[in-house]
Amino acid sequence: MTPRASLGLALTLLPATSLSGCALVTQKEWDARVDLDGDGVSRPRDCDDGDATVGAPQALYVDADGDGSGGGTTDVRCPAPTGYATVGGDCDDANAEVHPGAVEACNGADDDCDGVIDNGVEPPTWYFDGDRDGYGTPFTSETACTAPAGYVATADDCDDTRADINPTTVWHPDLDGDGYGDAASGTVSCQQPHGLLFDGTDCDDTRPDVSPSGSEVCDDLNVDENCDGRVDDADPTATGQTLWYADADGDGLGTVFNTTYACDLPVGYTTDHSDCNDADASVTRDCAWVAVSAGYQHTCGLEGDGTVKCWGGDVYGESDPPATPFVALSAGTWSTCAVEVGGQIVCWGGGSDAAIPAGPYTAVQGDANGGCGLHVDGSIACWGVLPDGELPATDVAYTSMSVSYNSGCGLDTDGNERGWFGSPSSDGPYLQTAAIDDSCAELDADGFLHLPADLNDGSAPTGPFTTMSLGGDDYCAITSAGAIECWGMYAFGTSPSGVYTAIDVGVYYACGLSAAGAIACWGECDYGNCDPPTL
């Protein structure tokens, strides 16, 4: 049994002995056969025996942020797939800036995963920013890894009470000395340089009359005097506009009844104001009457070119109008008032020196002793000797008005009547209102007349009418056919025949304007007040 035992021992000591009698394999040869890449890891433990850089399987860690360090062991295998790392210890695998070996930053976090926050880091200095302009003051500071509330990293603010003063502030020269700096030139500095201004809103630093405090005026050079980016007619604050007259019929002549103010000549307008009929190019200087107003002893008419002519008594110069074009007129007892082209009211003749409020107005009624004007904005302004009581409401936009010594009445944009001087108001809609005594009369939307109770004895005609005019004791109206009807204490005798468009009752007489532009007056005519001049 001994020889068998010896044979078995010999077989176990030989790494690769051929039983057929081949030569023995050395250890070196054996190692070379089981470790082909010579990396010291033999098969089958070597993950790739043909690549000396790949050895035995390693522990793998999930590397979610791709920073080369994993956060947890998942397996022992080879090779490492994408998303895994062979190094562990990542304390924040969602942040690639945090991992073992990272540089510790002063940020309140453990960047290098050594278990200590902000170790070995010197906190920066932060500076108080009182005016919140992004620049701090060097006089108040704190050190901290993160900025305290109200602190910033810079300390170069020279005035921490003003957000507009800091190292980026631009200072401007003021060459024309108007107190405004040149917007197109400047020097950047925290401190104010000598001779420079913080303001930089001057759009022309060569003209002291041009600045944000300047006044826009019409000029041929179209200068922006107030530096608001708008010039002449584009700027609603501009002054010095010219009054232009519309030329609707294209005959080269304008009308006083359609005007506008503008710096430059608008399309469809002209400087001429002599057209008598701007709806007909064949009618130019052969003017007809377009309005009439009866007073006490004098009457005034308005021609198509804006000329006012008066006739009859002239005790205080009430029949001596200024030589200027007008658009509306009102003959009073001893004086006359009219609205100039442009809208200002002018009165002449006897009466007080009461100041008339500035316009522009579209209508006037009264005389120099006292009257009211209808402003273009719909308000009513009154002046002079007026009866006690309330004045026109200021919260109403009026479209027409009527004034007597004891009452005032107006229509609003809805046609409702609003009275003042103690006159009652009434809901419309109405076509016209007329002040009479201490009340108002109305012409409704159907043309029917409504008189105050103390003036309505049942004998007055009711209409329909297109317009009316009421005097102290006598009243007239025009029918829808253009005929004149008068009634009252005197009734002025027989009214003229024909087709009329306007009527005005004076003191003991009346005048009508025909559709052809002629004026006819009747009643008490002892002062020449019923004899209009020939046009």
Question: In words, what does this structure look like?
Answer:
There is one protein chain. The protein is mainly β. 4% of the residues lie in helices and 30% in strands. It is built from two helices and 33 strands. The strands form eleven sheets. It has a three-stranded antiparallel beta sheet, with no helix packed on it. It has a three-stranded antiparallel beta sheet with strand order 5-4-6, with no helix packed on it. It has a three-stranded antiparallel beta sheet with strand order 8-7-9, with no helix packed on it. The protein is elongated, with a radius of gyration of 52 Å. It starts with a helix and ends in a 12-residue tail after the last strand.
Unreliable segments of 5+ consecutive residues: 1-21
Query: Cα distance, first to last residue?
Result: 170 Å
The H-level CATH homologous superfamily of one domain, spelled out, is Regulator of chromosome condensation 1/beta-lactamase-inhibitor protein II
Mean pLDDT: 88
**Biggest β-sheet: strands ordered side by side in the sheet:** 2-1-3
What does the overall shape look like? elongated
The tally of beta strands, per DSSP, is 33
Q: CATH class of one domain, anyone? A: Mainly Beta
The tally of helices reads 2
Cα Rg: 52 Å
Per CATH, the architecture of one domain is 7 Propeller
Sketch the major β-sheet: 3 strands, antiparallel
* Percentage of residues in strands: 25-35%
Structural class: mainly beta
The helix content is under 10%
CATH topology of one domain: Methylamine Dehydrogenase, Chain H
